[in-house]
Amino acid sequence: MQRAAAHLIGTHDFAAFGSxxxxxxxxxxxxxxxxxxxxxxxGWIFEVSANAFLFHMVRRMVGLLVAIGQGKQxxxxxxxxxxxxxxxxxxxxxxxxxxTLVEVIY
Length: 106
Hints:
The chain is α+β, with helices and mostly antiparallel strands. The protein has a single domain, classed as Pseudouridine synthase I, catalytic domain, C-terminal subdomain (Alpha-Beta Plaits). Helices cover 25% and strands 23% of the residues. It has a 3-stranded antiparallel sheet. It is globular and about 45 Å long. The termini are far apart. 22% of the residues are buried.
């Protein structure tokens, strides 16, 4: 999952991961950090920071990365969605519970 998360870092068109807040809005976003860390006793934390997020973007990221960790998807799936942003949207959506906005910086 960590190797797959590294592909999210950088400026990409995340249209496959979510919808812009405004109709016909831009889906280009810059992800600065995307990493997993263990949370004892048996959990994981995914931390992501970016210049902005799309609607459902983080939940779709987590859903895809967990599917990769479970062996249901290949690591290259992240690249496929980033390289084909106008193709099929990710359908996997992680549950909203447990999702926490930690900080907003202007």
